[in-house]
Design brief:
- The protein is mainly alpha-helical and 172 residues long.
- The two termini are 36 Å apart.
- It has one domain (3-171).
- The protein contains four helices and two strands.
- It is found in: Cell inner membrane; Cell membrane.
- This is TRAP transporter small permease protein.
- One of its GO terms (cellular component) is plasma membrane.
Length: 172
């Protein structure tokens, strides 16, 4: 494996972790619904409900989406090709490359804002409402993931601009 393949390998691992998080989210939802159902049919005699399920699902979904982005950012963009149908593939690749580089810039800006939010949360000792998790534990890793999103988007954009590969796309 050469050094250029390392970001792609890390992105694939992050993608698989996102899938695992989605399975965990599904299990949390099933457990929460089942335990609330038991509580309801037993008129409160069986109280094994837990608080924080909604927070776990919300932040789990945030991480699942963020972790999936680096691997999926250059895979199968859906494009409505009304304006680009007549263009040759090289010009479309250039447009896609520009888009991916700009998307990488957006991810870098989001990274900066998440880093700033993590620092503010640390300084103010902000916590989540139900679970009382420090918000810096959530915002800091999100910022690191966004570094990978930015890196993968910029690398994919540069590959397209340098005509190293043809962009995979689905035309609608």
């Amino acid at each position: 494996m050469n050094i250029a393949e390392i970001p792609g390998y890390i992105s694939l691992l992050m993608y698989r972790l996102a899938a695992l998080i989605l399975v965990v989210i599904m299990l949390i939802i099933c457990a929460d619904v089942t335990l609330r159902w038991l509580f309801g049919i037993s008129d409160g005699a069986i109280d094994m409900t837990f608080s924080g399920g909604i927070e776990m699902v919300r932040f789990g979904l945030m991480f699942a989406m963020l972790l999936a982005f680096p691997h999926a950012v250059d895979k199968g963009q859906i494009i409505v090709d009304i304006f680009t149908a007549a263009m040759n593939s090289r010009y479309r690749d250039i447009l896609d490359g520009i888009y991916l580089v700009l998307f990488g810039g957006l991810a870098a800006l989001l990274c900066w804002r998440f880093t700033d939010a993590a620092e503010m949360a640390r300084l103010n000792a902000e916590k989540t409402q139900d679970l009382q998790w420090p918000l810096e534990w959530l915002y800091g890793p999100a910022a690191l993931i966004l570094v990978m999103v930015a890196l993968q988007a910029v690398l994919a954009g540069i590959r397209l601009l340098r005509h190293r590969e043809h962009h995979q796309e689905v035309h609608v």
